[in-house]
Amino acid sequence: MAEMMTGASKAAVYARRAAIYAVTRKVVQNPKNLPLDTTLLHLVVASLAETRLGNVELADKHFTGLLQLLRLRNGLRTFQEIGLHLGLGMLHAFLVGQVPLFRTRGEILDALGRMRLPRARRPVPRSIRRYFEPFCFTGAHLGNLHLLNMIMAAEPAGFMDRLVYNITGSGERLTPVAMTFMIGQSAVEVREWFGPDPLVRSWETIEFVRLLAHAIVSREATARAMSGWLTGAGSADVDLEALKAEILDEWDMSQALGGLMH
Question: Superkingdom, according to UniProt (predicted)?
């Protein structure tokens, strides 16, 4: 999986793909012999390999299988049941493959309509404040992560404690994919999402992370505003309607470019 997520040579990608398919054929012959986690790992590596090699249609089939297995198992709650590295690998595959998790324009419009930005100010603990500075490598990612939590999950209780735990000792090694994993774990803890009138669902959370990451204005200006809000060094002014419009534009563009539909 590490080879697929880095700049490994095409020769290495071909070799890893061949090994994965050899094991996968054995799974198909006797699926009871292999745990589900291992099957998920094989699909992740296969989807990343085919994406790297430009085989979009085949990668799409692997993504479809991966999503179906996750939904059959426990949806995104699976991320709380599997190891960190496999979870990061799956999210990396979704982001690299630009897999849209909203299936229709109506779904994303409904989700955008539910987005609210709480006004309560929750300053970042001094122990990790430096990681949120606007010009810090992780500042924009953490600002976006906090913003998405505030909008979509009303920031679940204990989120900041988890953030402190994950950041401590990591520093500059934190990556956008790790941020996505953290918001995905927070997402599944919001009970209201499974009620009769849910907030943004956990599958949609991952899609919002991807869309926001591609948003030209929001990626920088909004993250700077949130970093300033969190550290007490700037304004908390965030134009939520403009953010919604930008996310919708990004989704429309991904569909126009032939985004995958699952």
Answer: Eukaryota
